[in-house]
Amino acid sequence: KEKTLEAVERNIEKILTRELEQEDLDTIALKDIAQTISALNEQEQEFKSEINLYKSKIQNHVNEELAKLRFFTNFTYHFLVGIIVVGLLAMNLITGILFFLYAWFRAIITNRSESHLIFTDLEIYETFNIEENIKRKYVLAFANLIGILIGIGLDLILFEYTELFYILYSFVSGVILYTIVREVIPEKEKGKPLYFLIGFAGFTVVIFIINIFTNLL
């Protein structure tokens, strides 16, 4: 409808231009054209209001569904991180500490209140409700602790970390990598390579320090 309306407006503009270029202006025709343009403008405003209403409904629905999905995935992620950290610390101290640091930075990144464009044509954004359900906050806060307790329990019963453990480790590592690509790496010309180099150098130094202390122990 909106595209059809724009095409009609362009045709009327051409007709109006031809009428104005004539020496003897037809006042009746000009009045009719003016009334038509006014009616089209009103219709255009109605279309825009209707589009904004639908966009608002879609926005609310998308935010509700994404909030549920984000809660489930975040709980699962933090729960698995707790189990994996205990298992990695039991096998290798350096690996466990580095994995914990990466997971911690990922948690910091996802707590930023930024909007992400989901549907480019409709300009629908994923928004985050800062004042979300308090119960959900408490459940997410205890997800890591629950995972750690279960990990300690598995370690106490001498649980053998088979291929399942490495599958979970790969899954969580993939989530961290996805978060970095989606929410951290800047788009187009907004990037600052200096920050990347500083972060790379900083993590390299941390790895060497942890390795030195581990060898001394």
UniProtKB/TrEMBL annotation:
Record field: transmembrane: 79-105, 138-158, 164-181, 193-213
Keywords: Coiled coil, Membrane, Transmembrane, Transmembrane helix
Coiled coil: 30-57
The protein's name in its UniProt record: Uncharacterized protein
Species lineage: unclassified sequences, metagenomes, ecological metagenomes
